[in-house]
From TrEMBL:
It holds the Pfam family Esterase. TPR repeats lie at residues 329-362, 363-396. This is Alpha/beta hydrolase. Coiled coil: none annotated. Keywords: Hydrolase, Signal, TPR repeat. The keyword Chaperone does not apply. InterPro entries: AB_hydrolase_fold (IPR029058), Esterase-like (IPR000801), Siderophore_Hydrolase_D (IPR052558), TPR-like_helical_dom_sf (IPR011990), TPR_rpt (IPR019734). It comes from the Bacteria. Belongs to the esterase D family. One of its GO terms (molecular function) is hydrolase activity, acting on ester bonds.
């Protein structure tokens, strides 16, 4: 126990620090204009839900290229994440690094991230809730109607709102951790048509005497889930003193069901993270899940040669994921630019023509072909392509300067 002088000294120090921080914040506000934020990350939309009978905030991340006018406006797969206020920034950053082509990555598609923050976490995410009229302390004796409403809200209100507000593609991924992971498995069982891929990280399958495990015990034997993907992540939550760990063993039971009672054609993967705990596993699990879901997305110059092979690659991927995935414009452009830099003009022309075919309203596609023609000394054709390009991006100074320069030659 501290003496009174020590306590008073510590109290004065705390008051001083609090006062210092308060004054510093005022000075910073006075000296820094409001618009001097370094980064504006994402946007906020609100939905007045008639199903939930409340207004919900939704956080939205759009890919860096979403508002690009030089390339043809694209449609993007959508990733829905529960506990959105916790995972939004880290997951969006991960999606950006893997999908936006930074340093030529393109290992997953560019994606929109929809983060759903909590208002009442247990009410929304639990498949059952405690019956207060039951004297038994372990009774969760009825379905959580509000939890079912939450899934209905996502399916019937949130997804239509997102699809009508943004350029979305017909591919959705649903991610949740802990109680959110339980919700993901609940959705896979009750509304499997809503999402294409399901990611459950450290799901709380122990909930209500393993009620969800009991429900899915025969589900994978009697359901056809061809074209669906499921990723199950488990952290090392075992303690040395544990003789029984209900949470850990429940996830293992889910794994056993997938291994031994599964004729659903579901594409699935389980991964155990020995060095992570219940909280720290989130980002590692999200990374591995996205790499698994889109494991065949990446097109490499090392193993794919020529536009026909590149096109065939995405046709096969579309068949596997049960959705239409065209060769991404920036990927095709990169292949063409590499060919152009190596003076393989015929090959470059095939790639650039491929982009014009798939993206006929792209200034970039016509601009690349103009660059090729200019390099080959075919200035009349180059001028024609540049003019076509400028018609799709009227304020593009680069294209306007190219046209002006060619007219002088």
């Amino acid at each position: 126990m501290r003496s009174k002088p020590e306590y008073k000294k510590m109290l004065k120090m705390k008051v001083f620090i609090a006062l210092f921080c308060f004054i510093a914040s005022i000075l910073c506000k006075a000296q820094t204009p409001e618009k001097e934020y370094l980064v504006q990350f994402g946007e906020l939309i609100t939905i007045k839900s008639s199903i939930l009978k409340e207004t919900r905030d939704i956080w939205v991340y759009l890919p860096p290229n979403y508002h690009d006018t030089y390339h043809q406006p694209a449609r993007y797969p959508v990733l829905y994440i529960l506990d959105g206020d916790i995972h939004f920034h880290s997951l969006s950053g991960l999606v950006q690094i893997l999908g936006a082509g930074l340093n030529g990555t393109y290992v997953i598609p560019e994606m929109i991230v929809i983060a759903i923050p909590n208002t009442n976490r247990t009410r929304d995410l639990a498949p059952t809730i405690l019956d207060n009229n039951d004297s038994s302390t372990n009774s969760y004796s009825y379905k959580n109607k509000k939890g079912l409403n939450f899934l209905k809200f996502i399916r019937d209100e949130l997804i239509p709102k997102v699809d009508s507000s943004y350029r979305t593609a017909n591919y959705r991924t649903f991610i949740g951790q802990s109680l959110g992971g339980l919700t993901v498995i609940n959705a896979l069982q009750t509304i499997p048509e809503t999402f294409n891929a399901y990611v459950a990280i450290e799901p709380s399958l122990w909930w209500d005497d393993k009620v969800l495990l009991k429900r899915v015990k025969d589900y994978f034997n009697r359901s056809d889930l061809k074209g669906k993907t499921f990723f199950l992540a488990q952290a090392n939550t075992l303690n040395k003193k544990d003789s029984v760990n209900l949470h850990f063993e429940s996830i293992k039971e889910m794994l056993t069901i997938l291994e031994t009672r599964n004729r659903s054609n579901l594409k699935w993967k389980y991964r155990f993270y020995e060095s992570d705990n219940h909280a720290s596993v989130a980002l590692a699990g999200e990374y591995d899940a996205l790499r698994f879901i889109f494991e065949k997305f990446h097109a490499s110059l090392d193993n794919i040669f020529g536009p026909k092979n590149l096109e065939a690659h995405y046709i096969r991927l579309s068949e596997e994921l049960k959705t239409n995935i065209a060769p991404p414009e920036r990927v095709v452009q990169r292949f063409g630019q590499v060919a152009l830099s190596n003076q393989k003009y015929d090959l470059a022309q095939e790639y650039f023509q491929m982009n014009i075919q798939y993206y006929p309203n792209s200034a970039s596609a016509f601009g690349d072909m103009g660059n090729l023609m200019h390099t080959k000394g075919l200035n009349t054709k180059a001028l024609e392509y540049y003019k076509n390009a400028l018609s799709f991006d009227l304020d593009n100074k680069y294209l306007a300067d190219k046209i002006k320069s060619l007219k002088k030659e």
